[in-house]
Design brief:
Elements: H1 8-28, H2 41-70, E1 74-77, E2 82-88, E3 91-95, E4 105-109, E5 112-120, E6 127-132, E7 154-160, E8 166-181, E9 184-191, E10 203-206, E11 211-218, E12 221-226, H3 227-238, H4 240-248, E13 250-254, H5 257-262, E14 269-275, H6 279-283, E15 290-294, E16 297-298, H7 302-305, E17 315-323, E18 326-334, E19 360-361, H8 370-374, E20 381-385, H9 392-401, E21 408-414, E22 417-423
Antiparallel strand pairs: 1-2, 1-4, 2-3, 3-6, 4-5, 5-6, 7-8, 7-10, 8-9, 9-12, 10-11, 11-12, 13-14, 14-15, 14-22, 15-16, 15-17, 17-18, 19-20, 20-21, 21-22
Length: about 425
């Protein structure tokens, strides 16, 4: 029998097998885990704050890059202390210019200044248009419109500061609603960004650079009016009705069956509104007059008058009107730059003179009442009824007893204009 223990090769093989078993066992044995030290609450909050700061810095850097590219759409109007938006070419849309506005404006963009003059100023319209002497450095917003924004998306409110630099406020788009602004019901862009007068005229953009809307004064509050509604304003201003208001401060309308039955003629266009201080008021026009001729051309409907209106805002128009049983000739003289800038010449002398209150105040108009349905409202002052001055008692009685069979034409003063209303 062989002595295996004396066989050296056999012993060497056993030693090698034992070593292999030890190596494999060592490799398969679980390592000891180094115990992690517990993180304190203060350290956890510090790390969380650092992460948030880094995210905020990244967001801020991104917003600054986007805002930097939008500055070409913005100008600062020094005289109005507001932002304006480059609409197309050298035309800039600005918040509605007030009564007695200058006839010349300074536009500030980055380190450059340009002169601009009013190109479109319609009373009570919440936007106006200025024509710049140069469009260098301008880029239109009209071609950068977006589709319907999605709720929660980031938006930037852009303004031009007094020193010419751009300012921005980030926020989230919320919704689109409707609101009354001037003579139109408009679409309002609602976002999380707070609005104040320092942002008046600023533009709202998405992060793609699409123009969403402009901050305008709508009654007693500010609103971001959508791009589509801005187009509607400009279309309204360019139509004949807008040119009549801009050039002469007058609103005309066709005679319908009710008004033609009340007045002595059924041909012509009815003067329904005259603005105070306008060429129409200076010429002597009052609501209730009926324009029958414009520059010797007979006028029976507004569609016949529209082609006769001049495109420019200057020149004299000779007209004929019927007032009661009388025929009158008048001259309407449009003012270069718009009559709205010339109203109340005493302001240039540093004076503020208010005429004494005339007429009889309407303290309330019940909802659904004939007076309210006809357009009368609280705060109106009754000046005349059917072309005659009346006492307070006569005015009260006439307003109460007017019927469809015996309507009355009421002349009322409302803020900066005089309007005529057929009641009921």
């Amino acid at each position: 029998m062989r002595d295996w223990l004396s066989d050296k090769r056999y012993l060497a093989l056993l030693v090698l097998i034992a070593l292999l078993i030890l190596l494999v066992g060592s490799w398969l044995r679980p390592r000891r885990q180094t115990a992690e030290l517990p993180v304190s609450e203060a350290e956890r909050l510090r790390l969380q704050s650092l992460t948030q700061q880094r995210n905020l810095q990244d967001f801020t850097s991104y917003f600054e890059r986007v805002a930097g590219g939008l500055g070409v759409h913005l100008v600062r109007i020094k005289e109005a202390s507001a932002t304006g938006l480059v609409w197309e070419g050298a035309r800039v849309i600005v918040p509605g210019l007030p009564r007695n506005h200058p006839s010349d404006f300074t536009l500030h963009i980055d380190n450059a200044e340009f002169r601009a003059s009013p190109a479109l100023v319609v009373p009570q319209l919440p936007i106006s248009v200025l024509e710049s002497s140069s469009s260098r450095g301008f880029q239109s917003v009209a071609g950068a419109e977006a589709g319907a924004p999605k709720s929660g998306m980031w938006v930037l409110l852009m303004t031009r500061q007094e020193d010419g630099s751009t300012g921005y406020s980030p926020g989230f788009f919320s919704s689109i609603s409707t609101t009354q602004c001037g003579d139109l019901t408009v679409k309002e862009i609602v976002s999380s960004i707070p609005l104040d007068t320092s942002k008046l005229g600023g533009g709202l953009f998405d992060l793609e650079g699409h123009f969403l809307g402009m901050i305008l004064q709508c009654g007693q509050r500010l609103a971001v009016v959508s791009t589509a509604s801005l187009h509607s304003y400009l279309q309204m201003a360019s139509r004949p009705e807008g040119r009549l208001l801009q050039n002469y401060g007058i609103r005309l309308s066709d005679l319908d069956s009710r008004t033609s039955a009340h007045f002595p003629t059924d041909e012509g266009v009815l003067v329904s509104e005259v603005w105070k201080g306008s060429p129409a008021e200076r010429a002597g026009l009052v609501p209730g007059d009926i324009v029958t001729r414009w520059e010797t051309v007979p006028v029976r409907k507004m569609e016949e008058l529209n082609p006769l209106l001049p495109e420019s805002s200057e020149g004299v128009a000779n007209i004929e009107v019927v007032r009661g049983r009388r025929a009158l000739k008048m001259k309407l003289e449009a003012v270069s730059g718009g009559w709205w800038s010339r109203v109340g010449s005493t302001a240039a002398l540093g004076l503020q003179i208010e005429p004494p209150e005339a007429g009889y105040l309407i303290e309330s108009a019940e909802p659904g009442s004939p007076a309210q349905s006809a357009g009368l409202r609280a705060g109106d002052r009754v000046m005349m009824i059917d072309g005659r001055a009346v006492s307070r008692l006569q005015a009260t009685q006439a307003l109460k007893t007017a019927t469809a069979e015996k309507p009355i034409y009421v002349l009322v003063s409302r803020e900066d204009k005089t309007i005529g209303v057929l009641l009921p």
